[in-house]
């Protein structure tokens, strides 16, 4: 498509101010199909060597053709930048293409476009980002991977003292990623495919050196035997702390299993009383209204097994208020004994799991609350 470029100085100055360009001069522009094509050139920063930044002599070359970069959108228009890079002769590095200040040497989008793409990808799915930027999902995915790999080049893990390990699912829960993060800085330091022992061993063996593993003084994970075993094998000196979220999640699942058992055995009239009880049982005491508490107390007369499971779950929340290890151990010992005597099989299974990992479940002192 042949474009008719406009060189009006007032229009060029207006577009430059609206687009917010710095270090770039617009020489001409043309309108396409929902695209604003801009011919540009570097402003007082051209002819620089990409290796040392020194200015070089321009060399006549017929191999360098005009290139196009996608930039941010300007209202309803997509901005496309056009420029023919020049070849220079550097006194130190010889002949090379001049440095491009607004984009990576091999990229088809500008740094501004990449930044917007990365920021949007933090807040929404790739499909939604692709719709906003008007690009295919496969194209967006490729650009994301190339940008992330480039920004992470030379990335080194240092001063890693408190480690958190967890898994996340994607593709509708059929695939998993193992995520390792620094609890002190609240940043992700590594992501591996899968959630097995092989994946987490890859992090400890290939990413961390022996000295870095010895510097880890605390680790946090869920009640997975895979992650617990890996931490104990690779960082035996680290204090292991189980994630509060996963402990309470397991307890809530055990309480819900008691409710399901009673629902299956209940008759028509009894089910009317149990209907809508699920989310009420999950509520924390600080979030319950007086009406919620009254409804839960009424279950004591209609179904004592569900009521007993709810009381045990509610009492267990007191465990997180302790700051001294001995007091927490005493409470946990008393609570587990009561839970075993409750004759509720799902609660008994939770207690068995908790006892296997009791040392990691005990709250630490205030000096270790960073975990």
> Helix amount, in percent?
40-55%
- Strand content bin: 15-25%
- Compute the average pLDDT: 84
Uncertain segments are: 364-371
What does the radius of gyration come to?
A: 31 Å
Query: Number of domains in the coordinates?
Result: 4
Give a nutshell description of this structure:
With 371 residues, the chain is α/β, with parallel strands linked by helices. The chain is built from 15 helices and 12 strands. The two termini are 60 Å apart.
Task: List the defining traits of the structure above.
371 residues; 4 domains; elongated; 45% helix; four-stranded mixed sheet; five-stranded mixed sheet; Nucleotidyltransferase, domain 5
SSE map:
Elements (H helix, E strand, L loop, with lengths): L8 H11 L4 E8 L3 E8 L14 E3 L7 E8 L2 E7 L3 E4 L3 E4 L13 H13 L2 H8 L3 H15 L10 E9 L4 E8 L4 E7 L3 H11 L2 H6 L2 E4 L3 H10 L4 E4 L1 H22 L2 H7 L3 H5 L7 H13 L1 H13 L8 H16 L4 H12 L1 H4 L10
Parallel strand pairs: 2-5, 8-11, 11-12
Antiparallel strand pairs: 1-2, 3-6, 4-5, 6-7, 8-9, 9-10
Helix pairs in contact: 3-4, 5-7, 8-12, 8-14, 11-12
């Amino acid at each position: 498509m042949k474009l008719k470029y406009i060189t009006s100085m007032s229009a060029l100055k207006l577009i430059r101010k609206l687009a917010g360009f710095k270090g770039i001069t617009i020489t001409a522009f043309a309108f396409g199909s929902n695209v604003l094509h801009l011919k540009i050139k570097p402003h007082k920063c051209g002819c620089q060597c990409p290796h040392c930044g020194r200015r070089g002599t321009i060399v006549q070359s017929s191999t360098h053709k005009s290139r196009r970069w996608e930039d941010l959108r300007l209202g309803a228009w997509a901005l496309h930048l056009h420029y023919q890079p020049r070849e220079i002769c550097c006194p130190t590095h010889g002949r090379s293409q001049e440095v491009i200040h607004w984009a990576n040497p091999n990229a088809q989008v500008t740094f501004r476009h990449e930044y917007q793409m990365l920021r949007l990808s933090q807040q929404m799915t790739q499909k939604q980002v692709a719709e906003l930027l008007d690009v295919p999902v496969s194209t967006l995915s490729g650009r994301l991977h190339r940008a992330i790999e480039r920004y992470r080049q030379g990335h080194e893990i240092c001063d890693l003292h408190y480690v958190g390990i967890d898994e996340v699912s994607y593709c509708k829960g059929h695939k998993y990623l193992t995520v390792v993060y620094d609890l002190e800085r609240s940043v992700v330091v590594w992501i591996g495919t899968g959630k097995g022992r092989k994946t987490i061993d890859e992090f400890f063996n290939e990413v961390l050196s022996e000295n870095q593993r010895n510097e880890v003084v605390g680790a946090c994970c869920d009640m997975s035997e895979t992650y617990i075993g890996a931490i104990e094998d690779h960082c035996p000196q680290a204090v292991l702390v189980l994630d509060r979220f996963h402990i309470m999640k397991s307890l809530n699942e055990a309480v819900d299993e008691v409710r399901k058992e009673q629902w299956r055995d209940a008759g028509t009239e009894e089910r009317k009383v149990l209907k809508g009880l699920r989310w009420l049982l999950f509520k924390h005491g600080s979030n319950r209204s007086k009406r919620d508490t009254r409804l839960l107390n009424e279950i004591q007369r209609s179904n004592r097994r569900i009521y007993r499971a709810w009381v045990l779950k509610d009492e267990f929340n007191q465990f997180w208020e302790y700051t001294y290890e001995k007091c927490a151990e005493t409470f946990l010992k008393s609570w587990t004994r009561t839970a075993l005597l409750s004759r509720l099989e799902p609660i008994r299974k939770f207690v068995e799991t908790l006892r296997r990992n009791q040392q990691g479940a005990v709250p630490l002192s205030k000096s270790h609350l960073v975990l």
